[in-house]
Input
Amino acid sequence: MSGQPTGGVVIEDRRPADAVAGHWVERLAPRSWRPYLRLARIDRPVGWWLLLLPCWWSAALAAIAADQAFPDPWHCLLFLIGAVAMRGAGSTYNDIADRDLDAQVERTRLRPLPSGQIRPRHAALFLVVQALVGLAVLLQFNEQAILIGLCSLLPVAIYPFMKRIMPLPQGVLGLAFAWGALMGWAAVFARLDASPLLLYAGAWFWIVGYDTIYAVQDIEDDEMAGIRSSARLFGQHVRGAVGLCYALAAALVALAAWRAGAGPVGFLGVAAFAGHLAWQVLSLRERDGRGALTLFRSNRDAGLILFAGLTADALLRTFA
Output
């Protein structure tokens, strides 16, 4: 349904400013599908990676604690499918709620809803389809994991409205995006213990840190539109604030690994993760939007480094 008329004007099929250049959505997808794929952020895969990685970290810690050689492959696949579906559903819901605000921000005004490429009622139907895929994935887990997963809907539901009323909306986003830190453990043990709770707290600080970097792109437009963000809240101290969040993230993840019984290789992975975060802080420049986007996207690599370290620890402990 690309090119929906808005006020008698047909909107050209154009990608948002922060879409990944050369992505298959722009090259291969049928023209009529592209607005929906953009609405689900399929053209910006870093989002589902960042939702997925705490799930995989948690699954790796559970493998260490359970003396398994590696995280459960079936669980990891389910988390992957669920992350793509629920990130798409969350982005669709967020864009429905924010379509008027998005029209006032340069980076987001070409998104499918504010640009008129998709009508709100069609977006709502698309949201339901994605949510049903996520539900089908969730129902593959044990009862305790299902209940924990359903509780994540509360922060997801309220997040889009927080940027209107609170100075740190990234805190609510962190509550939702860190939820996977609980799920991987619950899927194995059917309960929550200190390790996943510490991991959840660490993931929360990581998310607040990287989303503050992301918000640096929009400081000027947010100021004019009255949109609140952590980048605006911290102002000229944004670099120090991100550094503090990342330091707490690394410390809490290390505690989670210790409580799960990780060995030297696992802590080497935590150290490499912390080193990557330190590099981001040193590279961050206030109001450098292009550089901020690059640093934000690099968090996929930071998360994969941690997952690789924890997984290698589980493997080596099994054969030691």
User: Anything to note?
Assistant: The chain is about 70% helix and 0% strand. Residues 73-102 form the longest helix (30 residues). Residues 62 and 188 are 7 Å apart (CA to CA). The radius of gyration is 20 Å.
